[in-house]
Amino acid sequence: MELVAIFVSAILINNFVLYYFLGICPFLGVSKKISSAVSMGLAVTFVMTITAVVSWAINHWILIPYKLDYLQIVSFILVIASLVQLVEMFIRKMSPPLYQALGIYLPLITTNCSIMFLALLAALRNYSLAEAVVFGVGSGLGFTLAIILMAGIREQLDLADVPEPLKGAGIALIVAGIMALAFMGFIGMIK
Predict the structure, then answer these.
(1) In a 10 Å sphere around its CB, with 0-12 CB exposed, 13-18 middle and 19+ buried, how is residue 31 labelled?
(2) Quick one: which of 100, 98, 88, 117 has its CA closest to 24?
(3) Helix H or strand E segment including 175
(4) Which of 23, 26, 6 shows the shortest CA–CA distance to 14?
(5) pLDDT, tens digit, for every residue of 123-178?
(6) Assessment of whether the complete model's pTM goes beyond 0.85
(7) FRET pair for 70, CA 20 to 30 Å: which of 63, 64, 99, 138?
(8) So where are the chain's domains?
(9) Neighbour tally for 56: CB within 10 Å
(10) How far apart are CA 108 and CA 124, in angstroms?
(11) How many CB atoms lie within 10 A of CB 182?
(12) Tell me: the pLDDT tens digits for 97-113?
C-alpha cells in the first residue's frame, strides 16, 4: 500500500510541475503540440526513473557507507547529465524528426530542476530501492500528465479568441495556474 501511495502522490498530489512548480521551462516550451509533449514526457519519465535507480545506488552503496554525503549534489548532477546525454544520442539516432521537434528542450532536461529534486528528495526521504523506483516513475508520469494536458489545452486555445496581450506565454501561465488549482483538489486523497 505504501508504494501505491507514493505512486499516486507523485502523479497527482505532489506533481512536480503543478505543486512544486519545477520543470516549468520544458513544460511551457514543449507543450504547444501533443505529439512533442508526449515525447518530452516519456523522455523525462525515462530519465527520472533511471536517475532514481542510479542515484539511490550511488547514495546507498558509496556516499553513505564512506560518509561522503556532502557529495550528493555533485554526484547527482553527474548522473543526470550522463543519462540525458545518452537519451539525447539515442533519440538523435533513432528518430531525427523527434530530435528536431524537441529542439533545445531535450538538452534542457539536464538542467531540469525537477530531476535533481527527485534525486535529492528520494535521498532525503531515505526511500528503499523499490520506493525510489516507484517515486521516479510516478514523478515522470506526473510530469507527462501535466505536459499532455497543457498541450491539449494550448492546441484548443489556438482556435479560441484570446485577447492579443494574453496570447502565447501569458495565457499559458494563466492555464498553468488554473491547472495547479485543479490539482489541489487531490490533496487529502491519500492518508
Answers:
(1) buried
(2) 117
(3) helix 169-183
(4) 6
(5) 999 999 999 999 999 999 999 999 999 999 999 998 999 999 998 889 999 999 99
(6) yes
(7) 138
(8) 2-186
(9) 22
(10) 25
(11) 11
(12) 888 877 777 777 766 78
